[in-house]
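Q: Convert this sequence to structure tokens.
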Amino acid sequence: MGSVRELDGLRALVTGGSKGIGEATVAALRAAGAQVLATARTRPAEAPQAGFIEADLATMGGCETVARVVAAELTGLDILVHVLGGSSAPAGGYAALSDAEWQKELDLNLFPAVRLDRLLLPGMIERGAGVVIHVTSIQGRMPLYQSTTAYAAAKAALSTYSKALSNEVGPKGVRVIRVSPGWVETSAATSLVERLASDAGTDEQTARQNLMDSLGGIPIGRPARPEEVANLIAFLVSGQATSIHGTEIVIDGGTLPTA
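A:
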């Protein structure tokens, strides 16, 4: 970004802000001068009381709690970054996915964004300005049927919803952008590599390479770092990106075989 204080005076909310991409995004936006509220289901032990909202966004009540705190503490919002997502679905392909598993994936990866947008975008539209970032996933375009079918479908739904939203609110002054990461080396990803190595009786480097190979390879030879995704988000919400709208920016080290 051109200035370390590019976002001075702007108010932001980051969901999934307790770890990984969310935590890095909170840090990047604050470093750029924004006043940031982070939210997650559980407050990290090291997180200060101020600036953090403990809420379960997989429920409507949790989303309403966050909207109330945003109204009380920020009196409005300029930047909304939806990072929250993940999967607890079992491996085993389509037959392993019950209705309950499908519902959990939608509750975590689609509905929090839909609900919070419904609660918070009216203020942006009234002011005629704002930026919404939906963090999707390249899994929406290249699902791994053994383990990510439901997660990938939910992220694809988020992407389609986001595109429709951008067409609706762009003329009203609100930019909507999708950021689509590939494999990002979060603490959860590191734990996955450790588990895969243990299960296969191999070392972590071999397990790491096997995981990259399962994705079809990562041409740069490594996953992205959370701060790299966060820096992209910080640029996209800044005044330097005012013509970027309604599109999906992929950050995957070249994993997707086509653009």
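The two ends are 25 Å apart (CA to CA).
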